[in-house]
């Protein structure tokens, strides 16, 4: 057994990350506080990249330091997540255009969608300006993007 936390798994182009809902995630009624959905989706994107061999620290320390900024997010709440739910974050990196990456995400309980998000994320330099993605990022993401 390993002490390493699970970074989820890939199923084709989609990445799935397990998420458990704890008391701290909820309001007094046991329903997940709306801002926490953004945290679950962020974890899904981060662990997608981690399993694809893309590490945030390596991007920041590379010859062309690169980070990410969310430019747009469209978040739809379908059904509430509740305390003790065992959920999965489904993440699909759809396409890249210039510095922009388009991503679709869902929060699932079994096969039931609780929330969905469409995002536009931008590669940025350390100064916060949009920048062309480094070759290693493009190379590692290529198998996961739409043909």
What descriptive keywords fit this protein?
alpha+beta, 147 residues, 38% strand
Q: How would you characterize the overall build of this protein?
A:
The chain has 147 residues and is an alpha+beta fold. It has a single domain, classed as Thiol Ester Dehydrase, Chain A, CATH 3.10.129.10. 20% of the residues lie in helices and 38% in strands. Strands 1-2-4-5-6-3 form a six-stranded antiparallel sheet. β4 and β5 form a beta hairpin. The longest helix is centred in the N-terminal third of the chain and has 17 residues. The protein is globular and about 50 Å long. The mean pLDDT is 95.
Can you tell me the CATH class?
Alpha Beta
Unreliable spans: none
Shape: globular
CATH superfamily: Hotdog Thioesterase
* Secondary-structure arrangement, i.e. CATH architecture: Roll
Layout of secondary structure:
Elements: E1 9-11, E2 14-20, H1 35-51, H2 56-61, E3 67-77, E4 86-97, E5 100-109, E6 112-124, H3 135-141
Antiparallel strand pairs: 1-2, 2-4, 3-6, 4-5, 5-6
Overview in brief:
Helix content is 20%, strand content 38%.
